[in-house]
Amino acid sequence: MPTVGFKAFGPTRKGMVFNDKAVRKEIISALNDFEKIALREAKTIDQTFETPFDWKYFTNRLFVADMEARVWTDDPRYKWLDEGTKPHIIQPKKPGGILAFPSVFKPKTSPRRLPSQPGGSSGETVFAKLVHHPGTEPRNYSRQLRLLLDNRFKQMLDDAFDRAAPDAFGGG
Hints:
By secondary structure, this protein is an alpha+beta fold. Helix content is 34%, strand content 25%. It is elongated.
């Protein structure tokens, strides 16, 4: 299952008394906010698709010292686009069948680019017994999302600790 993960480790505040309740409240708030941001950015990948991916989000809300958030989809199309595909042959499902497809195709996605763009199939219908597909160049969406969101995740958690500092650490 293609997963984009974000990790952050809670900052240490030397010589301060740690009040888990105050920090947990701010961290959970930050994680909830990050969930909305991460899902919004992930959904830009398939925003022009007829059938979007089913995106999921998980975060470790149990341990304040080691926080993790993940956004993912089980949709195999994401993996094909993210990692690319090798050249392959496409054949009809039924033996002796014929493939039929539009003659013009404009991809909705591009390597190393978020979000997806308008695209699709058009033109006259072409018929063939098989097709030698050239493969798909990797879009590297997981890397793009990580680059876009990793620092933001860490900053949101640092800000949450700073907001909690007066209560959690005896005056900041």
